[in-house]
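Hi F.,

I've been meaning to write this up properly since the lab meeting, where we talked about keeping a consistent format for the predictions we share between groups. The idea is simple: the sequence comes first, exactly as it goes in, then the structure tokens exactly as they come out, then a line or two of notes. No screenshots and no reformatting. I'm using this chain as the first example so we have something concrete to point to.
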Amino acid sequence: MFPNPVNAYTSIQKEALSGRELEASVLMRAGLMLKQVQDNWDATDRDAKLLEAIKFNQKVWSFFQAELTDPENPLPKNLREDILNLSIFVDKRLFEIMAFPESDKLTIVMDIDFNIAAGLRTTPTEQ
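Output, unedited:
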């Protein structure tokens, strides 16, 4: 039997990670959970897996919202606002998916999760 790809990915991430690496890892996991549901849309346990993936994504994005609204957050104000607006979009899409589940609706949230994770993994260049 093949291991669950999400669990396999998570087990690799046991080493100590920096804040950016940890955030990237969590976003990758969130995207992978959605991808697994999308790839197995006709599975008998789809509804349970979908709910699990949605709840995980909601927790991740709620954490980002809390961090970004913290007055001590070091990110520039306009970047914080852009990410907060993105998080509102993700929230709305996740609620829409819960109300009217369709495989294709998962793609945009997965893309956002994966792209933000990739950006966090990019080493900032010095000016």
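Notes:
The chain has one domain: 5-121.
The chain has five helices and no strands.

If this format works for you, I'll send the rest the same way.

G.
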